[in-house]
Amino acid sequence: MAGIEFREGSDGWASAMLCYNSALKEVSTKVEILSEEFKHIHKYNPIEYVKTRIKSADSINKKLIRYGYEPTTQNMIMYCNDVAGVRIVCSFTSDIYRLSQMIGKQDDITVISVKDYIKNPKESGYKSYHMIVEIPIYLSSGPVKTKVEIQIRTIAMDFWASLEHKIFYKFEGSAPTHISEDLRECSEIVSMLDAKMLELNDTISAAVEEQERAKREEREAQIAEKLHLASIEKSNQKKAMENAASNKKRA
Ligand code: 0O2
Q: Hey, which of 65, 79, 82 would you mutate to test ligand 1's pocket, going by the most ligand atoms within 8 Å of its Cβ?
């Protein structure tokens, strides 16, 4: 967190957590606004749901120790990038890339790193799009740049990750080989499902567009027909008036 020096001890920890919690609120609001705008423009909501969480002190300490650092507040700020986490669950894979671009383009967001586990899935079969971003939190002493991990994935990817997490938790991280293989196979099925659903969505969107185009053309043809009939009617009336006038003259 650039912009402020956090002391060790409960006060420093609480101040850091205040920034992380505020950063979660900021990012959530940004995502909510993007979602509302998307619904307004495209009449479609790409976001199924959003979850936020602050990593537990226990998980932070374990991660720091795993990375070879002392579990201190300063080390957490420096080396633990996912203390504040936002998970955005989208309908389709294409929404993930669209949304990540919309987030990354925002002026007050700095994208620190991106891990595309959709194009390059993890050994476990895990698929998700991860962004570590930095966002300024305005405290009375000035802005504090705070890191947030944004995970963007489809419902199918989220379903797999949640169950895989539970299964691995049961085996305390070392599941038998055949279970790991089955999980990787399930991850392939998830990708096929995502691809099929996207294809269906594209087909349906194209069909709806075609239907709307046909209706629009029919309406335009009806209007053109009415205008044509009206102009014939007008010219007949004109002719009738001219005939009546010339008959009157002759008489
Ligand atoms: P939790 O419970 O979400 O806090 P880095 O952040 O770069 O220093 P890290 O944390 O290994 O290194 O980054 P990575 O690989 O991008 O993973 C971060 C998070 O992605 C994990 O956080 C999980 O939430 C999720 N994740 C990564 N790999 C897997 C996987 O194989 N299965 C599942 N279900 N989730 C995964 P934490 O800290 O592990 O857990």
A: 82
